[in-house]
Specification:
Length: 122
């Protein structure tokens, strides 16, 4: 068996990024290592996303994060109503059906849901 269960991305400020991922995507803080300026977040499936403060290595162009949500239309409305800008709303793309936004460091975040992907993403 092979299973991706940890991913580290360099960020400018791990606390700012932590708050953004918790507030907007519902991730939970697993632990923090203040001396290493790192926060570990977990999603609902157990994947751990490490936010490691390394401003000189932030490379938003090199990584796209895909998050499955319950309902892409509802999540888009919720985040838009909260003032979160989107690159594009839910729509058909080459990778399927979903929306795209950026985190505080410019990482591309793609949101999708299983039903819309199956019905609209083909």
């Amino acid at each position: 068996m092979v299973k991706l269960d940890h991913l580290t991305i360099p960020v400018r400020d791990h606390l700012t990024s932590r708050d953004w991922y918790v507030r907007n995507l519902g991730m939970k803080v697993d632990f923090e290592a203040p001396d290493r300026r790192t926060t570990a977040l977990q999603d609902d499936s157990g994947l751990t996303l490490f936010l490691e403060e390394a401003p000189q290595h932030v490379g938003s162009a090199g990584c796209i994060l895909y998050f499955q949500v319950d309902d892409i239309e509802a999540k888009h409305r919720q985040l838009s109503d909260a003032g979160i800008p989107f690159v594009h709303p839910p729509q058909k793309e080459y990778w399927g059906y979903g929306a795209e936004l950026r985190d505080p460091d410019g990482y591309r975040i793609r949101l999708w849901d299983e039903k819309s992907m199956r019905e609209k993403g083909q």
